[in-house]
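Can't paste images in this forum, so I'm doing it all in text. The chain is below; anyone willing to post the predicted structure tokens underneath?
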Amino acid sequence: RILLENALVHTPPGTAIRVRAGQTNGRAVLAIEDEGPGIPAGQEEQVFERFYRVDGGMASGSGLGLAIAKELAELMGGTIEVDSKPGATTFRLALPSAA
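Text version of the structure:
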């Protein structure tokens, strides 16, 4: 939920957001893609740190959402990754698929 919520909160109104779901290599994958301003270069991994907030971001918050999401994903044997540049940010959640 936090991945979609972040896309809605941290992009300008009317920004296109896509949700994709699939399966790759025995893992369920959920991708949230947006066409917003992106995460500044070099800060992609920092957004997963507790209390970290991107400078000049569009919304306020505690900076805990992505840190919690990453920890939960890892506890379930999964991962969260981000790829970002201006106009294209994608967060991917991958979890082991049920057999």
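The chain has a mean pLDDT of 88. Helices lie at 2-9, 65-75.
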